[in-house]
Amino acid sequence: MKGVAVLFCVLSLVLGQGQIYSWDGTGETLAPDLINPCLTDQNSCGCCVMQRQKWQLEQYLNSSLNSLEDLLTSAQTTLRNIRENRVAFSVGLTDKRRCVGPVKMTAINVVYQSIFINIEEAYNSTTGVFTVPRSGVYNLALTVFSDAGSPGAPLAVCTSIRRNGVALAALKEIYDQDQEDQATAVILVELRVGDRVSVSLQPGCWLCDDQNHYNTFSGFLLYATV
Ligand SMILES: *[C@@H]1O[C@H](CO)[C@@H](O)[C@H](O)[C@H]1NC(C)=O
Ligand SMILES: *[C@@H]1O[C@H](CO)[C@@H](O)[C@H](O)[C@H]1NC(C)=O
Fold first, then answer.
1. Whole-number Å distance between alpha carbons of 67 and 147
2. Closest CA to 100 of 146, 140, 141
């Protein structure tokens, strides 16, 4: 209420310069203790008018302040929601020349070790699993690349994006006339909090990369659902 007090100090100056404010309050109910001086002592009428205008200004300022406080609260809530809804990760396979696979019997999780962005570490770079921190519609993108090593050698790229172990989208290139190959899948999918999303590499297939990051895996929350 400091601001109100300061404004009261300048009130007399404002009044001296004529009728600037329109809060003359015709028809408004006044507090009884502000009316009484006028009835009992005519000499105090000037003061009474002053008191009335002061009270009306205070009311006006109070209601302005209240609506500003409401606006501030709602802006703070919106900002907090936006902050809580930020989910994004983007990772590359490796920072130096390296191949992952081929594996023999069972599929493995590809562990991406080069982190571009990983808000609140929702992507675990030890296990290769993105654990969904907030339910919503997500954009997931996978780009795979492999190198057969020499012309004519077989190339086998076979991976899938999995949710809780079940494939959502797969990429497959098994070929022997191409030394290198690259493929991309982008999907929108509704995920629940706690879902585990990973990239699985099938037996007999392998991925190769270097500091150019030919293999990337990314995801972000498009919008949250309850
Ligand atoms: C304005 O707000 C203050 C603090 O809440 C209160 O004490 C005062 O009575 C209010 N004035 C009016 C005119 O409503
Ligand atoms: C990643 O997973 C490992 C193995 O489950 C765990 O020990 C580690 O705490 C996890 N890291 C984060 C950041 O959650």
1. 64
2. 146
Q: Does ligand 1 come within 6 angstroms of the Cβ of 60? A: no
DSSP assignment of 77-139: HHHHHHHHT--EEEEES-SSSEEE---SSS-EE----EEEEEGGG-EETTTTEEEPSS-EEEE
Mean pLDDT, the chain, rounded, equals 83
Ligand 2 pocket test, pick from 124, 125, 130 with the greatest ligand atom count within 8 Å of Cβ, gives 124
* The architecture CATH gives domain 86-224: Sandwich (2.60)
Nearest bound ligand to the CA of residue 122? 2
Residue 22 has pLDDT above 80, yes or no: no
What is the C-alpha end-to-end distance of the chain, expressed in Å?
A: 40
Closest by CA to 215, choosing from 163, 150, 135, 157, is 157
Q: What is the DSSP letter of 27?
A: T
pTM higher than the cut 0.85: no
CA-nearest residue for atom 3, ligand 2, is 126
Which of 112, 113, 127 for a ligand 2 pocket mutation test, highest count of atoms within 8 Å of Cβ?
127
Under DSSP, the state recorded for 31 is: P
Give mean pLDDT, residues 115-135: 96
Q: Which atom of ligand 1 is nearest to the CA of 56?
A: 13
CA of 124 to the centre of ligand 2 (A): 6
Instruction: Indicate if ligand 2 lies below 6 Å from the C-beta of 124.
Output: yes
Distance CA 53, CA 20 (A): 12
